[in-house]
Amino acid sequence: MKFSEKLIALLKSDPSVTVLTGAGVSAESGVETFRGENGLWRKFKPEELASVDAFLSNPELVWEWYGYRKNLICDIQPNPGHYSISEMERIFTSFYLITQNVDGLHKRAGNSRPIELHGNIMRNRCTGCDKQFENIEFSGEIDQIPTCDSCSEMLRPDVVWFGEMLPKDALEESEIAISNSDVFFSIGTSAVVQPAATMPVWAKNNGAYLVEINPEETPLTTYADEVINGKSGVILPELLREIKE
Ligand code: NAD
Ligand code: ZN
């Protein structure tokens, strides 16, 4: 059996469940990783584009890079892994989803309130007053950076860049999720980017049963109570079938 009897019994008892996701959950949808072969952008490193310094020195380039990634994401669909996580929200009375992904695919799959630790690439934010803007249409070359209708400062992607703090609300909501967890899933994350990497450890120290789903080993693997080796788009639908039996 792929899943332990303990896990199935626990999940059937309607525990409080928290799921933490990373880029691996979107891999089966075809979301490019930063290191992918992507023509035009191959000559840049993400660290050189995803930072305040990069934005201040060349905002047009940063807008074009995000526009390019945003267009790629608009053309792809959530996969069975995303849909299973959305179903989990309806199965468990107490359910939290914390994601490091900026692609918005959890929302598109039906999760009502994912805690987005690193922001959302579909959204923009004012560099002056922090006002948020949805659906700013843009692709291709840019000659004028969009500005805020309240304070006229430049808009930027509403994502967390290298060297930036995570959104305070998202961190506070994550703490509540972690302290409530009976079962904590770490899915499709390499568990190296902080503070997300430490969240599964906090949850376990707080009494949660820690489950990792990943085709590869991570620094978390030896610490988890249960490790399920495989792709989230395959494993999660199987897991849900078992707990619904
Ligand atoms: P990561 O790229 O460091 O690690 C991805 C993990 O997913 C790996 O451990 C890999 O073994 C695993 N994986 C690969 N395919 C999988 C599958 N089908 N099912 C389950 N697991 C699979 O990703 P990370 O830990 O999220 O950290 C990367 C950082 O880059 C984050 O800060 C994130 O914000 C950002 N990022 C986001 C996206 C996105 O929004 N989709 C894409 C690239 C990078
Ligand atoms: Zn403003």
Question: Can you tell me about this structure?
Answer:
The protein has 245 residues and is α/β, with parallel strands linked by helices. The chain has two domains: 1-31 and 78-118 and 165-245, Rossmann fold, CATH 3.40.50; 37-75 and 119-159, SIR2/SIRT2 'Small Domain', CATH 3.30.1600. Helix content is 36%, strand content 17%. The chain is built from ten helices and nine strands. The strands form two sheets. The protein has a six-stranded parallel sheet with strand order 3-2-1-7-8-9, with helices on both faces. It is elongated, with a radius of gyration of 19 Å. The two termini are 15 Å apart. The mean pLDDT is 92.
Based on the model shown, name its key terms.
245 residues; alpha/beta; SIR2/SIRT2 'Small Domain'; 2 domains; six-stranded parallel beta sheet; three-stranded antiparallel beta sheet; 10 helices; 36% helix; 17% strand; elongated; binds nicotinamide-adenine-dinucleotide; binds zinc ion
CATH architecture of the largest domain: 3-Layer(aba) Sandwich
| DSSP E strands, number | 9
Helix content, binned percent:
25-40%
Strand content: 15-25%
Query: Bound compounds, please?
Result: nicotinamide-adenine-dinucleotide, zinc ion
* Intertermini distance: 15 Å
State the CATH class of the largest domain. Alpha Beta
Largest sheet geometry: 6 strands, parallel
Radius of gyration: 19 Å
Order of helices and strands, N to C? HEHHHHHEHEEEEHEHEEH
Widest sheet: strand ordering: 3-2-1-7-8-9
